[in-house]
């Protein structure tokens, strides 16, 4: 006996109100029977069908399949039961509207691992139900009769011994209803076909047995004709599969879900992309404006392999520096550390769109430069001002004659790498660019200084001066504040230069920029790497101290900075979590459009773990575009003039992508949790009690 129901009862609990669906049902059903179940609406016939199909549970009695009891079945057992024994045809079709006829039928053939064989069988079944011409048409574009034929082909693809049809003609016209009835009879050989119907006239010439249900009980069970004996070799085909079969099906369904609703997936990907951009902007604002570093490099630029050395008495001579270089194996030296790194502020002007602070650096291992050469390293967002910045240094007459430009995405600082000659001989001249001059009560920037031998010692000319009546005024320069000069003339103009130029006698000029070459408080040794520099520190003789320029030191009032940073980090995490919860809620509501599809998978016997995991795959595919688009947005933000954004750091990229990944996977988890444990009947809203 294929199927036996013994005293089966189904009870529904609706908000504490118990309702009997069916009770005391006793039936024995076997191969080659074509059974119609008839009765008024609400009599329990669909409930009976749902219990047989394991689309709903039963609370009383016992259901046997091939003589085996099922009352002890777990959810996994019922999955296997549906997979191996049941093929269901619904009144409302339950075709997956966004898949083609071929894709719908192939879903019932996932037990076959070979894709070519699976497709071959699907096409044969589609041809059998007369839908070859519609094979690549989406379910939403089919007529009612075509949808029902598709569902029948899908039911046949399962090769299940029991075919259940719940009102298969309920939504069809007379012609289509007769065709479906004939088709069910055609495919009923060596199968048990059970049809719930309000239209028994369509099946009267095919049915071998009629069962009537009234008020949840069997009121009639009549044999109409003798069914043919079952073939001796009736058994379901055995198909061997690899250990990765489940994984392949998971990937297949995940990809199928992803591409079945292109508008939905595009919308979800776009929403996730907006989330990524928002988090990027929030983190950038927090990182640049609010969160302060607790430590900074000893040297502002943190030059690799640079060691700052000093002596116990605070005085270093060039001969002593040469000795230290020989002892430690330094590759390069610089006598005065103050000239190894200094800043020049360039004011906003007609040629410069904004104010820039240019850090001038001597770093021989990064850029080995000849006398007069320099390299301008500039962030992409400031490239539009690169030529104007170069012009400032080239026209200042400070020894720099040629500047190459290097663009960067990883820094918002403008750096000018200079040669040894400029660092040791012209650093004071370079640092004096746009220094200031005080004329009485007024103070103004001075672009640069020039030698004019016609002037007497102590007298100066101002070229391009914006002040009137300054002749005879006393001038004091920030570059050399301990001496005052008298303005002899302020009428000259030089249209090739933007800014005030100070002309003075050579004696005064060299006095302004004279340097003490006898002793230095700190000198510099350069090595190829920090690792070599650390080893060199151990070789310094007694009385000398060395520090890595890239080593960190605490900022002023680090405790206050730490407290503020904790507050801002807390705010950042709170904003991110709030944003994540909001997006998760929106996504969760959106992804519910797949609920019917996933319950169709369950009726097809697709294991719950396969369909559940497929959603994780689908959500991961929705997440993938942000991995590419976020760096592109960061790149665009970086190149916008004046934006101040730097290319996204690896840490921030990882944080944002992790947040988004958690969001989409939590959505998948929540969706799976919401449908697990629900009866398929409730989920699909099928039938009446």
What would you say this structure looks like, in words?
The model has no long low-confidence stretch (mean pLDDT 87). The protein starts with a strand and ends in a 5-residue tail after the last helix. The protein has 689 residues and is of the alpha/beta class. It has four domains: 3-241, P-loop containing nucleotide triphosphate hydrolases (Rossmann fold); 256-293 and 558-684, no CATH class; 306-430 and 522-554, no CATH class; 434-512, no CATH class. α5 (144-157) packs parallel to α6. The strands form six sheets. Strands 20-19-23-24-22-25-21 form a seven-stranded mixed beta sheet. The protein has a six-stranded mixed beta sheet with strand order 6-7-8-3-9-10, sandwiched between helices. Strands 14-15-18-16-17 form a five-stranded mixed beta sheet.
């Amino acid at each position: 006996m294929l199927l036996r129901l013994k005293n089966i009862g189904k009870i529904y609990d609706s908000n504490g109100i118990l309702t009997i669906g069916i009770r005391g049902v006793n039936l024995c059903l076997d191969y080659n029977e074509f059974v119609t179940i008839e009765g008024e609406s609400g009599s329990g016939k669909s409930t009976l069908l749902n219990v047989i199909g394991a689309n709903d549970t039963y609370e009383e009695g016992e259901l046997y399949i091939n003589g085996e009891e099922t009352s002890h079945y777990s959810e996994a057992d019922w999955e296997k039961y549906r997979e191996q024994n049941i093929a269901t045809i619904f009144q409302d079709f339950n075709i997956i509207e966004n898949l083609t006829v071929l894709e719908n039928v192939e879903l019932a053939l996932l037990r076959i691992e070979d894709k070519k064989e699976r497709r071959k069988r699907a096409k044969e079944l589609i041809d059998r139900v007369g839908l070859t011409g519609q094979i690549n048409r989406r379910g939403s574009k089919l007529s009612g009769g075509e949808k029902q034929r598709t569902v029948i082909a899908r039911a046949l693809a399962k090769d299940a011994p029991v075919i259940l049809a719940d009102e298969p003609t309920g939504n069809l016209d007379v012609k289509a209803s007769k065709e479906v009835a004939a088709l069910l009879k055609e495919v009923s050989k060596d199968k048990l076909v059970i049809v719930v119907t309000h239209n028994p006239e369509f099946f009267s010439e095919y049915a071998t047995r009629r069962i009537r249900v009234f008020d949840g009980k069997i009121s009639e069970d009549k044999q109409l004709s003798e069914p043919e004996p079952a073939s001796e070799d009736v058994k379901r085909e055995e198909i061997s599969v690899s250990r990765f079969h489940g994984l392949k099906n998971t990937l297949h369904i995940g990809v199928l879900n992803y591409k079945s609703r292109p508008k939905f997936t595009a919308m979800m990907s776009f929403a996730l992309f907006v989330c990524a951009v928002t988090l990027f902007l929030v983190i950038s604002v927090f990182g640049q404006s609010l969160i302060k570093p607790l430590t900074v490099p000893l040297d502002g630029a943190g030059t690799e392999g640079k060691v700052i050395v000093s002596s116990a008495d605070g005085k270093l001579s060039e001969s002593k520096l040469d000795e230290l270089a020989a002892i430690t194996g330094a590759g390069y030296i610089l006598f005065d550390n103050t000239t190894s790194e200094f800043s020049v502020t360039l004011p906003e002007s007609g040629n410069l769109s904004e104010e820039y602070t240019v850090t001038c650096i001597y770093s021989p291992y990064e850029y080995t430069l000849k006398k007069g050469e320099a390299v301008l390293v500039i962030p992409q967002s400031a490239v539009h001002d690169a030529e104007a910045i170069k012009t400032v240094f080239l026209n200042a007459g400070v020894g720099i004659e040629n500047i190459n430009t290097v663009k960067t995405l990883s820094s918002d600082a403008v750096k000018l790498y200079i040669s040894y000659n400029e660092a040791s001989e012209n650093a004071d001249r370079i640092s004096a660019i746009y220094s200031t001059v005080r004329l009485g009560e007024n103070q103004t920037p001075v672009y640069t200084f020039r030698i004019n031998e016609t002037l007497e010692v102590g007298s100066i000319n101002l070229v391009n001066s914006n002040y009137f009546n300054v002749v005879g005024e006393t001038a004091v320069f920030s570059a050399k504040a301990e001496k005052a000069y008298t303005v002899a003339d302020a009428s000259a103009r030089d249209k090739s230069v933007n800014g005030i130029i100070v002309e003075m006698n050579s004696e005064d000029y060299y006095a302004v920029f004279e340097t003490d070459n006898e002793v230095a408080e700190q000198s510099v040794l350069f090595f190829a790497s920090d690792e070599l520099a650390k080893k060199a520190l151990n070789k310094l003789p007694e009385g000398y101290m060395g520090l890595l320029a890239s080593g960190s030191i605490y900022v002023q009032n680090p405790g206050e900075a730490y407290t503020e940073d904790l507050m801002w980090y807390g705010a950042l995490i709170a904003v991110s979590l709030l944003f994540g919860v909001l997006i998760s809620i929106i996504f969760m509501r959106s992804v519910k459009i797949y609920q019917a599809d996933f319950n169709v998978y369950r009726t097809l016997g697709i294991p719950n773990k396969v369909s559940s995991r497929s959603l994780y795959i689908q959500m991961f595919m929705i997440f993938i575009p942000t991995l590419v688009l976020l760096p592109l947005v960061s790149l665009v933000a970086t190149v916008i003039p004046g934006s101040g954004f730097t290319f996204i750091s690896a840490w921030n990229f990882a944080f944002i992508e992790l947040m988004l990944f958690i969001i989409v996977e939590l959505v998948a988890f929540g969706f799976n949790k919401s449908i697990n444990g629900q009866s398929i009947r409730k989920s699909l809203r099928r039938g009446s009690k």
